[in-house]
């Protein structure tokens, strides 16, 4: 029979292991990993987009770090090269722009908020040993940077996983207006600021998604996840493009 103090140590060890596992299962890193795995290894692997991550609004790099960790884990588990995974980052690196729109008016946001330099993001990429050559930067406010020239440069690397962490309704609207020509059914979205106005669909990112779904491109459908439920969507084109 185990001595009480040994039994207690073992119970604490197993409890800590379970807690750590549950914490990972609910993390954004795991959400990214799960979709990298689905797009590459599931029944849909022959026709879903894969291995290209777009991030609109890099901020201090926390979400990007989660994706890079997921990408490294995926590559290790599948014995594949990180060179197969591409990242496209879209940010002004000057923080939030000025906006006088009612839909953007939130007490937590102001001009210049979340301003981190491009070098700060590069340092994060290098710290986590992701190949910098696989990262493209698109610098500037979206009304300027999301143009036909940018779209043309992305034709060969359409997104498979997209993070939109742009806070504003107006910025999210610019992003969702830009993406349709290169969107494929099966692309998944993570919206970081969906609950900012408590899901009021006349404000913030919720309004921009509502308006996107009223267009003729296709729709963003909510995903039921065991982590980040309510912030995740999958795109399906109005005309199913994967028919035989």
What this model shows, in words?
- The chain has 244 residues and is of the alpha/beta class.
- The chain has a single domain (20-237), classed as Rossmann fold, CATH 3.40.50.
- It is 38% helix and 14% strand.
- The chain has a 7-stranded mixed beta sheet, with helices on both faces.
- Helix 4 links the parallel strand 2 and strand 3 (135-139).
- The protein is globular.
DSSP strand (E) fraction?
Answer: 5-15%
Strand order of the largest sheet: 3-2-1-4-5-7-6
Shape type: globular
Class, according to the CATH hierarchy?
Alpha Beta
The quaternary structure here is single chain
- Radius of gyration of CA atoms, rounded to a whole number: 20 Å
State the helix count: 8
Class based on secondary structure composition and strand pairing:
alpha/beta
Mean pLDDT: 88
What is the second-level CATH architecture? 3-Layer(aba) Sandwich
